[in-house]
Amino acid sequence: MNNPLTEIESRTIDFLRPLLALMVVGLHVRPYYSDGTEMFASGLYDASVIMIFRILFSLAVPAFFLISGYLFFKDLENWDTTVWKGKIRKRANTLLCPYILWNIIAFLGFIITRKAGQIIKGNNPVDLISLLNERGWIRIFWDRCLYGVIHPARTNLFGIAVGAGTPMNEPTWFIRDLMVVIMFTPLIHFLVRKTGRLFILITGILFCMDLWIPIPGFSAKSFFLFSMGAWFSINSRDMLDCFKQFALPAYILSLLLLFAASVSFNCNEFVYDISSRLFIIAGVPALFCAVSSALSGKEHIKPTKGTKLVNSSFFVYLIHTVLITDVIHWFLSYIPVSDKSIFQFTMLVINTILVYLLCHCIYLFLKRYLPGVLALLTGNRTIPKKS
Asked: Does the residue 387 lie in any domain?
C-alpha cells in the first residue's frame, strides 16, 4: 500500500481543488430572473442554469469525497489501529475544529441578518433564545431545523425517508459526512480487502437507489465515493490511469446523462434521480480525465504557480455562504435588467466569479495580517500531498 502520488496525480488534484470550490460556489449562487423550474421553461437561460449550475456543478462534492478516500489510504506502510488513531487525531484538527467554528460563524451571521432585517422593518429585534429555539440549539452543528422540523423533507425512489438536514453553514455537510465516513474507515479497509470490487459495486447500487442509513450525516454518496477512492489506494492502483482506460465512454455517457438529468429536472422525479446519480458515477472520472489530459505534456505548468488558489480553496468552500453570496447578489441586482438569455447567464457567471474572488481576497488578507486566525479557521491546512 506504499504508493505515493505520481506527479500528474498531484498536479491534477491541485488544479481540481480550486475548480471544484468554484463549482460549489456556483451551486449556491441564486439565479436572477427565474428559478429554473424546468429545462425549457424560459428558454436558453433556464436550460443553461439547470444543465451547468444545477447538474454539472453537482460533481464537485462527490469529487471531493473521491479525493478524500484516495488520499486517506495513500502512501501507507501498513494499516493498523495506531495508524487509524493518528489519522483521527489529525482530522480533529483539520476537519472538526473548522467545522465547529464555521457553524458558529454562520449562526452569528444569521443573527446579524435577522436582527438587521427586523430593525429595518421597524420591528423589535428577536432575542437570541428565540433564534436558538428556531434553529434547534445544538442541532445547528448537525442538521439545523426550523422549530423542530427539517425542511425540506426528502424521500428516496421507494418513498422511504432519507436522512436530511444540513448544519448551519450549509456547505459543511460535506465535512460532517466525511467525518462520519472516516470513523468507519477500519470497516471500509476490511471490506475492500476482503471483497474487492464487490463492495464498491454494492455501495454504488445503494447510492443509485438512495438506500442507506436514514440519519443525517450518513449518506450513500459519501460512503460510495470515499470507498471508491479508497479502493484505488488500498490496492495500489493509479486512479488516473484506471480512469483514462475508460475516458471516451465516460465522456459520452456523461454527456448523455447530463442531458437526461437536465430535461427531467422538476419534470420526472424518478428519471431525474436515477440519471443524476448515474451522471455522478460517470462524470467524476470524466472530470478527472479532462483535467489530467489538459495538464498532460505541460510540465512547465507547476502547481506552485497557482498555490494561493489551491490553498484558499478550503477557505472559499467554508466562507462563501456566510453573507458573501447574498451581498454580491444584492449588489448585482441593481444592474439594469435585460430579458436576453445571454445577459442573464453572464450575470450568473459574474456573480459566481465575484463571490469566489472576494472569498479569495479575504483569505489573502487573513494570510498576510492575521495568519493565526486563518490557521484556526482552516485547521492549519497547507497543500496536502498525502493524507
From this structure: no
Q: Is residue 383 part of a domain?
A: no
Q: How confident is the model at residue 299 (pLDDT cuts 50, 70, 90)?
A: low
Residue 385 placed within a domain: no
Nearest CA among 89, 19, 92 for reference residue 59: 19
- The residue assigned the cell 443573527 is 111
Instruction: Name the average pLDDT for the chain.
Output: 86
The pLDDT of residue 38: 44
Count of Cβ atoms closer than 10 Å to residue 280 Cβ? 25
238 pLDDT above the threshold of 90:
yes
Overall number of domains in the chain: 1
Given phi > 0 = left and psi -120 to 50 = alpha, else beta, which region is 31? beta
Q: Indicate the DSSP class of residue 92.
A: I
Whether 336 is covered by a domain: the verdict is yes
Handedness of CA 201, 205, 207, 208 (dihedral sign): positive
DSSP lists the bridge partners of residue 155 as 161
> pTM of the predicted model, to two decimals?
0.91
Please state, in angstroms and rounded to a whole number, the distance separating the CA atoms of residues 137 and 269. Answer: 33
Where in the sequence is the domain holding 227, given as residue range(s)?
7-298+309-378
